[in-house]
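dumping this here so i dont lose it again. seq + smiles for pyridoxal-5'-phosphate
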Amino acid sequence: MTGGKEREKLLMGPGPSNVHPRVLASLASPMIGHLDPDFLEVMNEVRDLLRLVFQTENRLTLAMSGTGSAGMETCLVNLIEPGDRVLVAVEGYFGERMVEMASRCGADLTVLRVPWGEVLDPAAVETALRRGGHRLLAVVHGETSAGVLQPVEELAAIAHRHGALLVVDAAATLGGVPVLVDEWGIDACYSGSQKCLGCPPGLAPLSFSEAASRRLAERREPVRSWYLDLSLLQSYWGRDRFYHHTAPVSMLFALREALRMVAEEGLEERFRRHRENARALAAGLEAMGLELFVPETHRLATLTAVRVPAGVDGEVVRLGMMREHRIDMGAGLGELKGRVWRIGLMGMGASRRNVLFFLKSLEEVLRRQGFELPEGDGVRRADEAYATAPGGRLRVEGQTS
Ligand SMILES: *Cc1c(COP(=O)(O)O)cnc(C)c1O
């Protein structure tokens, strides 16, 4: 007997995103040993391709076994020693998760919070660091709970000026919007395989700068987590190939294939595609009389938060989208529960066809909920946005589903 076959759905939430058949097919490759020379080649290629997407030369670049949160925990547990002063700058749910993890690492914590939907003011970060002694600044680049893109370029310079390393969560941005690890001066950066990279969940790409590697090498005590200890893992991924744990072989096949597809499309083209589709989605939603949660200046292209209008039950709409159109859109998380929908356009999901189908479906479901809206305006306005996008509408785009 074979396993049940799931029917395809359109994944338009905060991840996982839809996975291309080429990547799915790679998961069915025959099993090989994780120390087989052929598999070492796979790991090498994954590492090289990760350097490309992180835009870094960092030697310590690899994919952690585990989801994005394992990437987060790896950065924090390797770079924090009990008693270290750490500043976490929080713009939403995942920032709070960093606070929780840093606290479990025994950090002497300072937390700087802005209301969800807003970005951090670099001057406020600098003021907090000026109190002195901080060893680490941690921040989320694309906060999927609120749909905010936090600029991190300036934060790196500020952190370094005060002797702190910068940790950046690029779970929802890597492969979707620019993440320039070297140019921006990020010291530790992690992501998740299942968002803009277009791979199933299960791996956490990660990169450490030379300064972060040095911090790791100079620790006074061993890393408190054995499994996430990068000093052990780098000899597994490095030349020594020292056995640490059994790598999730199939997942690494999948990540390699997904990263190859990113490289074939080209980073710039991929960023343009995410940006353009997000812009069209936003135009369509606004034309339907819906209100976006975040102003355009710091809106995250890969995830759009839109307010649930008064008189509409957000969950009923979400279930309607799922049952009638097989669209899985995201609900509000944490303090935005019930107040917003979160619409993801990640990886191959960022396509014109998905945006237009989504808007048309949402219009139908909303109308049935008694929400009055002008017929067809969402799709029409989104279409206009494509037509006026830099580069025009004639560009060939990646197919979906
Ligand atoms: C998805 C996500 C994570 C990691 O989540 P996992 O569910 O563990 O993969 C971390 N940070 C942000 C901003 C995310 O969107």
